[in-house]
């Protein structure tokens, strides 16, 4: 299973990506962020792989 952090500066785009990626049986959304710094922290917390 792929563990994914969704990062985009537009919350609506993140929501769209969460919906699309989250519907795949082999993808787990572990966190979401809306800028680069928050994305780095989200990766540290969620440990995507």
From TrEMBL:
Superkingdom in the source lineage: Bacteria
Keywords: DNA-binding
Domain Response regulatory: 3-49
Organism of derivation: Streptomyces griseochromogenes
SUPFAM superfamilies in UniProt: CheY-like
GO MF annotation list: DNA binding
InterPro entries associated with the record: CheY-like_superfamily, Sig_transdc_resp-reg_receiver
Protein's recorded name: DNA-binding NarL/FixJ family response regulator
Residue ranges the record marks as coiled coil: none
Keyword match DNA-binding: yes
């Amino acid at each position: 299973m792929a563990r994914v952090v969704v990062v985009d500066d537009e919350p609506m785009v993140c929501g769209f990506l969460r919906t699309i990626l989250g519907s795949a049986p082999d993808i787990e959304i572990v966190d979401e962020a809306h800028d680069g710094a928050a994305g780095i922290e989200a990766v540290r917390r969620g440990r995507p792989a």
